[in-house]
Write a structure and sequence with these properties.
Shape: flat
Number of domains: 1
Number of helices: 5
Order of helices and strands: HHHHH
Radius of gyration: 15 Å
Number of strands: 0
Oligomer: single chain
Length: 104
């Protein structure tokens, strides 16, 4: 795996964790530890993205990091117990297909 893909993974994972912490924390009345921790993951995502732009073109970086949408949809369904309809699954599938095209 190249450095660019490792940075993509860092951006995607930290973005997903940040969004999950924010969503879960706000649903529970703004729990004190989850929201500040989400800011830490947001910072990791930002600085990873900045590093990614140093080693990869923006035309690769932005679409590749969109794969966070796929993981967030899966987490919304299984972790947050949200109802995810067929249109949302279809959108996530299209994003996944686009990221797969970038890999080749």
């Amino acid at each position: 795996m190249t450095q660019a893909w490792l940075l993509v993974a860092s951006v995607v994972l930290s973005t997903v964790v940040c969004d999950l912490l924010q969503s879960h924390g706000m649903r529970r009345g703004g729990r004190a530890w989850k929201l500040p921790l989400s800011v830490v993951f947001m910072a990791v995502s930002f600085f990873s993205f900045m590093q990614l732009l140093k080693v990869a073109e923006m035309s690769f970086a932005v679409p590749a990091t969109a794969s966070s949408i796929v993981l967030e949809t899966i987490c919304a369904r299984w972790i947050l117990k949200e109802a995810v309809g067929l249109r949302r699954w279809g959108g996530a599938l299209l994003v996944a297909a686009g990221v797969a095209l970038l890999a080749h």
